[in-house]
Amino acid sequence: MSILTASLANRRHSAPLLVAGRASIDPRKSSSHAPKICGNNPRGIRRRRACPESRRAARDTIRRMTEAIATENAKKKSIESFQKAHDEATRVRKAIEQEITTLPSNAPAEHMQAYADAVAAHKVLQDAIQQQASRAQRLHSLRTALLQEQASMNAAHQELRGRYPGLLIEATWERLRAEVDPAALTQLETLRNSALERERQLRDFGKSPGNGLLRGSRFLPIVLKPRGRP
C-alpha cells in the first residue's frame, strides 16, 4: 500500500499542472518552447514573420553566393580561352623550332667573307659620315664666332667715336673700323655647304669624299638600307 501511494505521488508531481483550465508550462520543456526575442522585443512575444535583421542577413547571403557563382563561371570561361591561346602558342613555337632545324648551321665561306667586307665598309662609311658632319658643324661654329666678333668690334668702334666726337671726318673713321673680310665669311659658308653635301652623298649613295665607292660598299645592302629607300 505504501508503494502504491508513493507511485501516485510521483506521477502527480511529474504531470503538468492545470491552471485556469489550461496546461501549465512544463519546466523541463521551458527552454525549448520559450518565446524568442527578436530585435527590440523585450517581452519575447512570438512573431509570425522573421525579424528585419534576419531577412537582411538572408538577402546578403544570397547575394554573396550569387556573386561567387558568377565569378566561378567567369573563371571557367577564362580557363577555356587561356587553354586555346596556349595551344595556339605551342603550335606556333613548334613550327618555328621546326623551321630553325632546317636552317644551315654554317654559311658558305664566300658569304662569310662578303659579310666581313660589308661590316668593314660600313665602319669606314660611318667614320666618313661623322667626319663630314663634324667638319660642317665646326665651320658653322667658326663663322658664328667671327660674326659675334664683328659685332663686338663695331660696338668698340662706336664707343671710340663717342669718346672723340668731331675729331675726324666720316671717311677717316670708316678706314679705322676693324672688320672681318666678308669674302672670308662667304668662303666659310661655302665650305660648310660642301661638307654637308658630301655627308648627304655618303648617307644616300655610300660615296667616299673623293666621289669614289668605298671598298666593300657593294655588300652594304646586306647590313644597311639607304636613307629614304624601302
Describe the overall structure.
- Helix content is 67%, strand content 2%.
- The radius of gyration is 53 Å and the shape is elongated.
- Among the domains are: 54-96; 123-222.
- The chain has a two-stranded antiparallel ribbon.
- By secondary structure, the protein is mainly α.
- The chain has helices at 2-14, 30-33, 52-102, 109-163, 170-175, 182-205; strands at residues 18-19, 22-23.
- Mean pLDDT is 76; it is low at 1-5, 13-25, 27-39 and 215-230.
- It has six helices and two strands.
User: How far apart lie the N and C ends?
Assistant: 128 Å
Computed structural class:
mainly alpha
The major β-sheet equals: 2 strands, antiparallel
**Main β-sheet, spatial strand arrangement:** 1-2
Helix and strand arrangement:
Elements: H1 2-14, E1 18-19, E2 22-23, H2 30-33, H3 52-102, H4 109-163, H5 170-175, H6 182-205
Antiparallel strand pairs: 1-2
Helix pairs in contact: 4-6
